[in-house]
Amino acid sequence: xxxxxxxxxxxxxxxxxxxxxxxxxxxxxxxxxxxxxxxxxxxxxxxxxxxxxxxxxxxxxxxxxxxxxxxxxxxxxxxxxxxxxxxxxxxxxxxxxxxxxxxxxxxxxxxxxxxxxxxxxxxxxxxxxxxxxxxxxxxxxxxxxxxxxxxxxxxxxxxxxxxxxxxxxxxxxxxxxxxxxxxxxxxxxxxxxxxxxxxxxxxxxxxxxxxxxxxxxxxxxxxxxxxxxxxxxxxxxxxxxxxxxxxxxxxxxxxxxxxxxxxxxxxxxxxxxxxxxxxxxxxxxxxxxxxxxxxxxxxxxxxxxxxxxxxxxxxxxxxxxxxxxxxxxxxxxxxxxxxxxxxxxxxxxxxxxxxxxxxxxxxxxxxxxxxxxxxxxxxxxxxxxxxxxxxxxxxxxxxxxxxxxxxxxxxxxxxxxxxxxxxxxxxxxxxxxxxxxxxxxxxxxxxxxxxxxxxxxxxxxxx
Length: 463
Ligand code: NAD
Prior knowledge:
This protein is α/β, with parallel strands linked by helices. It has helices at residues 7-18, 25-41, 43-54, 58-83, 121-132, 146-159, 172-180, 192-204, 227-239, 259-274, 290-303, 350-359, 373-381, 417-423, 448-460, and strands spanning 87-89, 98-106, 109-113, 136-140, 165-167, 185-189, 209-212, 217-221, 249-255, 311-312, 317-318, 321-324, 341-347, 365-369, 387-390, 411-412, 425-433. The model has no long low-confidence stretch (mean pLDDT 95). The chain binds nicotinamide-adenine-dinucleotide.
């Protein structure tokens, strides 16, 4: 792609920001309402685009994309005015008379690079926070969900302020060309490998950024768990989007005593949700592309376990597959699975399960099923991750008031709700002092008398 295709729009966005258009509360509110109108009026078209991309059902698209975004817009509209209030800071007596506060200022023009697995949400949820914080934005949806990408581009052009917001469709070349430009903030969602490249590009311009990456999210099923509910919830969270969810349970760690019961209940749940042949289920999506299909097929072959899942290259179908008897050294445990294969590992005591988690990279989330409060406390205090959800999965990301993001290799920075508003805002500290008094004490020459007086003063009125 030619660089000058992107440049004219960027120049327009910068101008809009310089003119202060996006700083006005009325503008922020109007754009959030316009986004809401787009999502409501074009709901059917959006659902059909996501379906065309990877056969995701309209119900799942509403639950995880449009419905979530509508909630986030309403939450933001409700709280935006209070988030914008300046924050007062206390001033030590020695600096009085003075007034100190900080305000949250927009950065300028933000680049949002989205991933394909929740193609609408991963572009528009950051956009809500970008707008709330008073910024302009360039949105780069994923090329692996081209139908959704086209709907986003069309919707944003028709419904929203083109002076301040634009969409650049395309793939790696377009993303790289964009990263040549200087943005004021970069928000990236995707794989760790590409994340490194994005960070290197951001470093060239010293641009601050957020990284929303993937990883292996463990799910512990303790001996005190309600197995039937745990099985249903794990199966739902794992096979939603055919396992192509950054927050999906990547593997299960089950207490030895409950292994057989859990395996049986999970198999029952798969049949109850998707029927005897999930290939025929309208609620079971396909794998997004050939490359990911082949990757999963290879992984399944390498696992060489007795209950292999079924695959169909023509439909890019991989059956919901539970793999038991897996050990930490197995191929399935070496990298994020990001598909409908669920390894189950057995542990004898909680320390062993926590050790397996600690030996891996920091996950985006840790899940635990246990009714024992001591176990719940132990898991929270003896592990590290972006988030934790006890006795359920995924919903920690649906609570608008909870910051969402990773830790270490699963990323850094937070968004959703107020955390998103703060991510795209830069705190600006303002101190306003009185002209008088203006004692000679602060100015050179610093005689020994002055210094000893200063020391005494600071003893009584600490800084
Ligand atoms: P992807 O291939 O859609 O890539 C993400 C974006 O990066 C796309 O817009 C793509 O065009 C762009 N891109 C690709 N190569 C690039 C390059 N060299 N330079 C700049 N941009 C480039 O998605 P993916 O990477 O396959 O995403 C899957 C990963 O994302 C998984 O690891 C998943 O766990 C993670 N993920 C994380 C979150 C989260 O919120 N933490 C959410 C969704 C997905």
